[in-house]
Design a protein that fits this description.
Strand content: 35-45%
Number of strands: 8
Order of helices and strands: HEEEEEEHEE
CATH architecture: Beta Barrel
CATH superfamily: Sortase
Helix content: under 10%
Oligomer: single chain
Amino acid sequence: MTRPPGRALAAVALAVLLAGCGGGPGEETAPKDRPATTAPSAPAAEPARPLERSVPVGLRIPAIGVDTPVLRLGLAADGTVEVPPVTDDDRAGWYRHSPTPGQVGPSVLLGHVTVGTHGDGVFRHLARLHRGDRIETRLENGTAAGFTVTAVRTVRKAEFPTDDVYGNVGRPELRLVTCGGPLTGGEYRDNVIVFARLATTGPAAS
C-alpha cells in the first residue's frame, strides 16, 4: 500500500503522543505473573481472503472484556497522530491513514491504558493478550473481520518499532497500540503493541 503524506512522521510521533495515555496510577500494565512479550509466530492455517475497504465501527476482544465503538483518527495540526479524547466513556480509535481492518496491510488502532481521573482506559489490559487470542472488528458495511493474535510486544518508547507497526505487509494484519510499563512524571515508559493476522470474515453479529 502507499504511504499517505505525513505517515512516516505520524508513526515516529506515536510513542510521544501516547506517552501519558491520560495519566493514571504508576503501575505496570502487564500482570506480574505473565510475560509482557511473546515471540512472533504465524498461525498454521491460511489467512482469510482480504476484504474491501470499510471503516471500522466496533472492536471486541473477549479475552480482556473489550467491546468498544471505534473513532476515526487522523493527524493533528502539528503532523502528529491524533489519539482518542480522554473521557469517562473511553473508546478505541482507528488511524485512518492505515488500511481498514481486513484490507491488505497493517490496520492500526490506538487506545488509552488509563484516562486520568476516569480510571482504566479501553486498552488497560492489552498486555494480557496471548498468541492465539481472538480480536473482532465490526465494519461499517456490516462485515466482521476476525483476527488472531500472533505476538504481543512491550517496547521502550524511544525504541518504537515504526516499520513493524506501519510498514507494508502483503496480507491483512492488525496492530493495537497503547502505553505500558512504569509511570514516571505523568508518562508511561513503554508502548504495548499487539500484532494480529486476519483469520475469519463474515457478517457482523447483531
